[in-house]
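pasting input
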Amino acid sequence: MSDLYIEKSKVNYNAMWILAKRELLSFWRNKSRVISSIAQGILFLFVFGAGFSQVEIFIGITRVDSRAFSASGIAAMVILFTGIFGGMSIFRDKMFGFMKELLVAPVSRRTLMLGRTVGVALQTMLQVSIIIALSVAFQFFGYDLSLIWRVMLILPVAFLASIGIVGIGLTISTRLNDMQSFGLIQTFIVMPMMWLSGALIPLPVQITIFNPFTYSVDLFRFVMLGVSYFPFWIDILVTASFGAILILIGARSFNKMEISQ
Amino acid sequence: MTENNNLIEVKNLTKIYEEGNVLAVDDISFNIKKGEIFALLGPNGAGKTTTISILATLLSSTKGEAFVNNYDVNKDSDKVRKSIGIVFQEPSLDGEMKGWENLELHAILYGMPKKERQVKIQEVLELVDLDDRANTFVKNYSGGMKRRLEIARGLIHKPTVLFLDEPTLGLDPQTRRKIWDKIKELNKGNSKITILITTHYMEEADELADRICIMDHGKIIAMDTSENLKRQLSGDVIDIQFENVEERFMISGIIRKIKEINGVKNVSFGTAEGEQEIMPNFQPPPGMPNIDPAMIQARMREILSEPNKLIMAWKRMPMAAGMFLNAPLTMKKKIANMFDDNLLEEVPGSIKEEIIRIKNGEFEEEEEELEPSISISCESGGKQLPLIIQKINENGLKIKTVNMHQPTLEDVFLHYVGTAIREESSNHSKDIRKMIQMRQLRK
């Protein structure tokens, strides 16, 4: 059956772009999503920022500003939430029947999947920039000239880091057939990845090393603070390969997806 | 591929769902000519949607070939996709986008350049009278508007053939009429578009289609124009309604006697008004939300028409027994009248007791009831009618109304679908299992 679906792998970029735009548009139009993402950002920033302001945090042997440590971790954490649940928008399309319209269109499934991935990744960048903007506004990072290029650099990093996470969301949602499993995903995937990455609290490397998301968080810290637990090239390598593997798995399950009417 | 004016050619198409080993489409062949409206008519689970899904390249076939616009659906799926417009059985719009945006996304997916796209979208919106609602979010559309927008969307990329899968399912009569008018309009004039429509509404097929293909259990049972199909069921249909409720248990005897008359082809118990009484408020059970009540009713009507089938159902399905015990009294009496003493021996315990109680008239004084009726199909109704009435009079039954009419498409449908099932009655339970599986697949 799947032979039929693995068509010419040609990517139709116009189609890809309109699908990505659709993701962004739906995020933007859903004002409750925008507001809640801002409110959640402020909440996290103040709870963790205040909580750790008295604590001395060391990365390696370097002492880092605890508020900046929290802010960069929270920015990375946003990728996890937005990426996985953004990837799961496929599930919504399946439920509301729109997926059939996409599947019967004369474009390759690769196009459909890339459009979705790029759309969610862009949306993630948007969310990350909201958090970064908030934390800059509330002086979580010390003001200096380098902050400008740090902030600019964080966006492509956010894009890269979100690819793998969107891949997880895509893989799950193409296989998922009921709404009830959302809680399971929250409990068994999102939460462990979040808490075991050291995004919110400083954790010993022995605990975080097995979590692929750790390296994305570490890359964020490297960019924003200039120091990291692992060398930055390891962070990039792990994040990129994690993204590549997950997007391939996602593509596979996307190709196999069947719509029974 | 032959060079002729067949727009769709289907040859020995078979589809077996590996999951559950269900035979959904069983070796069907048909051709659709250019400019034709072709209807696949059949109950839910007949294989109509599976057929259309194969033609739309959403499913691959197990065996056989299918060509759309001279392209093989298995090999040239992209070209097939560009040749067809499809309106699915269930809505497939993005409610979070505006009407115009839904259409624009479709146009881009089908690779239309910007200028052409603007013009064409405006054109199809005007065609379905939605141009004033183009900037409304689709989630705020009514059911009929959504349907019309989907039809518009199916037309944007100028397909040579339009697939409509149950286009008026769940719409009110007025809206349905409007959609029918639109469909007819599409099939007129120079830009006459070929349409393949699936439906389980007789009147829809009768109204729209040039040719009708009746499907059941994955097979084609009959295929012709509506007129010819009706002609095949030559003769007339006589519906007789009796006056005396108390004498209803005599009716099974009468049916047997009427069947002996020369020229009478079939007699069935209690159609006409009586049939509306079968589970009036039927709701699908929570686990099977996609079952169409109309289909269940049709199925039940058919089981209820023969005592042997009923006995079979009671023995095999506890649910059927429960249904009987909870049924309204009119219904129970109707059923009880079908069983004479011999047949009663085979009926399972609790139901047998209930039937005996009903026959003894234990519930007699309760509620007023509908008169029993029978439906007779015979060759030349005018000749047979006096004989039939005579037989009835001989048995002392009083007739309330007699209605003789030409067979409708509905009669044709029941005739074909009914006999087909009767032929297979030796493996009846297998049959039911297949139907249940098919229904589950549809979820």
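fyi Residues 42 and 430 of chain B are 20 Å apart (CA to CA).
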